[in-house]
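Bench notes, afternoon.
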Amino acid sequence: MNRITEVKIRFIYLLFLIFVLIFVVASSMRYYDKLGFYEEKFEVLQSGWQRVLPDGSKKRLFSTGESVPEKELLIERQLPQDVPYALTSLFIRTVHQDITVWIDGRVVYEFKYADIPPFNSKIPPISWVRIPVQKDQLGKMIRIELTGRGRTAENTLGGIYFGEDVSIICAILWKNALQILAAFCLMFLGIGMWVEYILVDKKKGDERGAYYTGVSLFFMGLWLGCQIDARQLIFNNILLLWNLEYLSLIMIPIPALLFINKVEKGLCQRELFLLSFLIFICDTLIIFSAGVGIFSFAELNLPIDLLGLITAIEVLRSFYMVWKKDKHLFRELTWMMGAYCTLIGFCIIELLSYMISGYANQGKFLSIGTIIFAFQIMHAQGIEYDKVQNEKSKLEISDKVQAEFLANMSHEIRTPINTVIGMNEMILRESRDDAVLSYAQDIQASGQTLLSLVNDILDFSRIESGGIKLVPKPYELATVIHEINSMVRFRAEWKGLQFEIIVDGDTPAVLYGDAFRVREVILNLIDNAIKYTEKGKITLSVTARSLDEEGNSPVQSKEETGLSTAKAIELQIAVKDTGVGVKESDQKLIFQKFQRVQSGWSQNIQGTGLGLPITNYFVEIMNGHIQLDSVFGEGSCFTAYIPQWQLNEDRIGNYEERYQKQRGEKKDFNKGFIAKDARILVVDDNELNLRLVQNLLKRTEVQITCAFSGEECIEKLREENFDIIFLDHMMPGMDGEETLKKIRENAFENRYGKPVPVIAFSSNMLPGIRQKYVNTSFDAYLTKPVDGNELEKTLYTFLPENLIRKRTNEEYFQTELKKHAIVEKEEEEKTLDRSTGLQYCMQDEEVYREILGLFRDSSDEKMQELEKAFAEKDYSKYRLYAHGLKTTSLTVGAVKLSENAKKLEHAAKRVVDNVEKEEAEHYIAYNHEAFMALYRKTIQEAREYLQ
C-alpha cells in the first residue's frame, strides 16, 4: 500500500467536496420544473392587509413605510378567491413571536410558546408556520395575531406565502441557497481537517493546527446552518436548531485561539491561553444558565457576541505582537492574517446590513466571508505543508548522504574482516588438527562478533529509533560462556588481572533467545571492568531463577519457541571487579550515551561513552534490566537480569565439559545435500552470474532453469512450476521489484500449491537494505558476489524437506578431492588473482576455467556496449554496464578491474542523479581509456591462462 501523505489527503478531500457540491446542485435543480419552482405556484401576500386596532377600528396596512416595531400586531385581509394552481397551504414566518390564526372567524392555528427544558428559552424561536387552506375557505377573511418581540410590518408581510407546498419550500430554500452551501462547505472542510489530523498529523505527533482549524470551521458551519431562514425546512426540530445556533457560536473562540497559538509558534501563548481559560469559564456559565432556565441563550446574546468580539481583538493584537517580535514569522503569516481580516470585515458588513435592513439579507454577507476565510486558511495550511515538505526533503537528502557514507565506511571496514573470516573458514574446512581447529573456532567467534559490532556501531541511529531487532533461536549457554572466556581471558591476564568464571551447575543448559545479544551484554560488561580495573580480580557469575510466578516474561511468546513445555527463567549475569568504582552521584549518568565518569586516573581512559548505554539498550529490549552496586575506590558489580526460555530440563553442570562434549557431537564439516527433483529458476541479465550460480549449486544436482530478464521470468513461470526463484534486483527493463510484483499479482505457486519463494540477488550493501527487500515481499536476500555456502544454505532453507537428501560420507569425499587437485601451471598473472576467483567458484578449478572462459567470450560485446554508451554519453546505460562488469570481474579474480568498474559506476550514478555532475563527467572522460585498456589486458591474461 502506498504511503498516505498530506498532499494525497488534500487532493482526495477536494475531489470529495467537488462531488458533494455537484450532487447537491444537480439533485436540487433536476426536478424543479416539475415541482413548480420555475412557474412560482405561489404568491407573497404583501398587500391588502388591515391592522385591527385595540378599539376595534381598522387601519390600512402597507408592506413599506411601516418601520415602527410593534410587540402586538393583529392584521386581517381576505384570502384570494380564484387561484390558477392547486391550493395547499399558507406559510407564515414568525420572529420570536407567538401566533394565532383565524379563518372566517374560526381559529385554525394557535401556538403559545412555553418553556421546554433543557435550555428552556423565554423567547420563541424564529420559525415557519404552515397552515392548510381548504377550497371552501378561499375568499374568506383571515386574521393573524402576532405577540412577542417587536417587528415591523414590512418584515411581517414579507414573510407570508400563499400557494403550493413544494413551490413555496423551493422558493425559501433557493432564497437561502448561498447560506446553505456555505454552511455545508464549512462543515465538510472541518471534517476534512479532522481526517487529515487523524490519518497524518496524529501519527507523526505533530498537529500543526489542523485539529483546531477543523474544529473552528466545523462549528462555524454548524452555526451558519442553524441560523439561516430555511433551517426548519431541512431539520424539523426548531428548538434544537435554535439552541445549537448559540452552542456552536460559543464553541468557536477557544479552538480559534489555540490555532493562532500553533501558527504563531507560542509567541503569545500566555495571553492566548489565559483568554481561552476565561472564555471557557464564561461558556460554562452561559450553558449552565440556559440549561437550568436562569437566562435563555437569546437573552445572553450580547455576552456571547462580546466574547466573539474579544476573540477577534485578541487575534489582531497577537498578530501585532508577532510583527513587533518576529518580522520573519509575521511575513510567513501574511495569508493567515488576511484570512482573519476578511472574516472580521464581512462580520462588520453583516452587522451593518442587519442594522439597515433587518433580516432581509440575513447571513448572506457572512456566508461569503466565511467561505473566503475557509479557503484562505486552507491555502495558508498548504503553504505550511509545502514548507514542511521542503524541510523534510532536505533531511531525507542529508540522511541519504549519511547512509551512503556509512555504507562506504562499512564496506572498507568489512572487507578485511571478511577476508580474515573467509580464510579462517578454509582452515576449519581443511584442517584435521584439533589444536588448530580450536584456535580457528575462537577466531571465527571473535571475527563474527567484531563484524556484528561494526555493523551496529556504524548504524547507531538504529538503536536510537529501536531499529535493532532480536533474532531469537535455541542456543547452548555453555557455548556462549566458552566463547566469552576465549575472547576476554587473554586481555585480562595480559593486564595482570585474575579472571574467574563461576557458573551455577543447576543453570538450564539449553535456552531460547538472542544468543548474540546475550553474549554482547556479557562482553561489554567485562570490557568495561577490564578498562577500569588496574589490579585485582574480575569475576563473571552466571545463575538463573524461575519466572513462573513473578518477574518480566521473555520478549518472545512460548509459541515462538515451538515447545509447549518451555519455561520462563531469568538469567542473572553478574560481573564484579576490584576497580575504581563509581560515585553514588555518578551512577545514574553511566547509562547515558556519550557520558563518561571523570574520576582520578580514569580520566585518561579513551572511549566513546557508548558501551554501557548500548548494553543497557540490549538488556531492555530483552525485557530485562541492569543493577549497579558500587563503592567508590573498592570496585563495582554490574548485574544483568535477562528473561529467557528454558527448552528442556538439561543442566549446564561444568560448562567447559559440556561445551567439549557438544563440540565433539557436531560435525566439523558440511557434507552438503542433494536435491535432484528440485526445480529452481535463476533470473539475471548477466550470463556470467547465471553460470556461476549453476556451478555453485552443481553438487546439489538441482534442476536449474535460467532467464535473462523479468519478462522471460514471467513467461517461464507460466509454462511450469518452480520450487524457488533467485531474482536479480538490478536489471534493465523490468527490474527485480517489478518482476516480484508481477509474480505476486499472478499468484504463481510451487508444485504443492503454495506461493513460490523469491530470493533477491543484489550488490547493494547500504544499511537496512535487507529489511527493505523483506518489506517488498522478497523471502530472503543474498549479496553479490554470491557466496556458495550462503547460496546452499538458502536453498536448503526454502526447499520442501521431501526434496532434500543429505550426502553420504563417500559422496562428500569424492567431491572434495576434486577441489584439491594439483595445478601444474605456475601463476604469474598480474591482473587475474586465481585464488580470489577460486574462492567464488567453491575452490573448483573446472568451474573457475568455465566461468573465466565465459568472461573472455562475452568481453567483445561488453566492450562495445561500454564504448557506445561512453561515446553517446548515455550515463544511465554506462552505469548499468559498469555495474555488471564490477561483479563478473571480481568473480573471476580480476580485483583491480572490479574496483575500477565500481568507481566508474559511482561516477555515472552521480551524473544520473545530478550530484556533482560536472566533476563526475570529467572523471569518466579522464579514466575511460585507461579502464578499457585494463579490461583488454585482463582478457588477454584470461586467454593465456585458459591456453
